[in-house]
Amino acid sequence: MIQQTTQPTWGYGYGMARTIGRVTLGEDGYETLGPMVFTQVPASPGLWTVDLDVQGSTYIRYISARILFSNNDDLQAQAVVDPDPTVPPGSRLRVQIWDVAGGADVPADLTLDSALCIEVVVNQPGEPSFSLGPQIAP
Amino acid sequence: MPLYTGKSPIRALGGNRIEWKAQFRVEQSGEMLVTAPPCEVNVTSWSGPPPGGEPERWNIRVDAPGPLVLEAYDVAFQDSDPPVFRGFVACEWDESTSTMFLRRRNWGGGGSPDLEPGDAVLLTLWFRNTSIPTNYVGAP
After folding, report:
1. Fewer CB within 10 A of the terminal residue: chain A, N end or C end?
2. What pTM was computed for the model?
3. Where are the domains of chain B?
4. What are residue A27's phi and psi, to 5 degrees?
5. Among positive and negative, which fits the CA dihedral B44, B46, B48, B54?
6. pLDDT (tens digit, 9 = 90+) per residue, A41-60?
7. Which candidate from B13, B14, B133 shows the least CB-CB separation from A134?
8. CB-based contact, B107 to chain A, within 8 Å
9. Residues of chain B contacting A129 with CB distance shorter than 8 Å
10. CA distances from B140 to A56, A127, A137, B6, B10 (A)
11. Contact at 8 Å (CB) between A38 and A23?
12. Chain B closest CA to A44's CA: distance in Å?
């Protein structure tokens, strides 16, 4: 047992939090779901910055960037932690969307009704705890 | 830089949601083994689109009383041994029917060989939680 002070079940999930977000291109423009701020980088097709709802430096354990496609199933997305020194480390991602059809990866924007989905797992600072609210009767 | 003031750290990180995980694996017999919460899986094949026709795909309908708001998803493809598939799984979501459509694609475009025994897809969906109130209390 690596962490002897932890109980087995609690220890495996201790100290991390998962956050998700999604931006969808609709007929009225981009719509965001989840606690992230999606910003398009000007003059760079398919390039986004994604600000996480975190405070201060954040240790990131996992990132995924996925595409929900509508009419182009050859879109793919890559995400990295943005090294921008003007924001706290680990608080901003950069995401590039590619069209991989044809073998040459071409930067591409979302098409109508397609979406970019982000999943991030970070270290959870502090002592996490939770309580359940009123439950629905079985 | 909390984006939403007054929220505790855990809640700010998006605690109020439902996580749905499932695995779809092809057995040696060719049958599809589904390890999933209630859902209906309509498997056709992983082959490319027929000439002039609709591309073949998997339809995974999540059992829910009404439309679900999909906030994000993650997918992984587990290839049989030895791994030979160079590509990815493309996903499309139909909110009106709570159905996820999966399609395997080759890098460079086009279809791919059929799914083989040992291949598996691991799918995670996150839905907005509208039924069970959960009050998260973050760090003091």
Report:
1. C
2. 0.78
3. 17-128
4. -70, -25
5. positive
6. 999 999 999 998 887 888 89
7. B133
8. yes
9. 137
10. 16, 7, 31, 13, 11
11. yes
12. 22
